[in-house]
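1st attempt posting a full record on here, be nice pls
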Amino acid sequence: MTSTVEPTAVRLRDPGPGLVALDPDRAALLLELDALFTGLADQVAAPAVVGPPLLPVEGLAKLDYFRNFPHLGVLAARLSEQAVDELAAGAEAGRQPVEPTGYVLPSATCYGVLLSLEGQEVGEELRLTAVGRCFRNEDHYDGLRRLWGFHMREVVYFGSADGARDHVATSRVFVEELAGRLGVELSYQPANDPFYDRTGSRAKLMALDPVKYEFVATDGTAIASVNRHRNFFGERLGITSGGETAHSSCTAFGVERWVHAMLLAHGTAEKALARVRDVRA
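the predicted structure (as tokens):
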């Protein structure tokens, strides 16, 4: 017999600054939006992979991560033996010493994909997609716009310089058309990445020749981006395409930020979810 009892409304409390718990409607909205983002992967024939949950410090150092973004890193540590003994004896949690592990939580999904391809020949072209939980130590947090941890869907390209540029162009068309169907107004702007040292060489190069552009909602929230890496990652990681150093580019969707943009555009999670489901139908 089918139950006719209406489900009880679930109220979830955010556990702390930068931490958000999504109720059923917003959780459904997140999952349905990510399913739409995989349409780009289907369009460019990018199979799904699952990246590692942690990244080695040594690997990120090869990519100048700690020169450019040391302030964003969230380290993975373990409790020391002394701490384990103290906690087991009933000590107050949170004041025990920890030990480094040599790992960092990902701040972008593509890093795990990149490091997993180190030293490999990818053929004429390679496209992959992955979604992962990413973590950033920000100077402030703001609802779904800026979080300690969030989901990022990426579609990554490896191959020629022309292919990397084509991937960016294809992605731009996809994102703008999808936003139009979802009723989300966007602008396309050069990125303003949070470099630790804005006088550094990479920050200066980005200002002179932007290779990253963001799709920005009406309240200034960057909800997606396209990134052309030139041959930087190919050189640093020894990734080749047809025997030559591979060029790469990627497209990134901040999934919680898209939830925010849909709420901004449609007012309620129910209306936003109905719009997404209509687009998917």
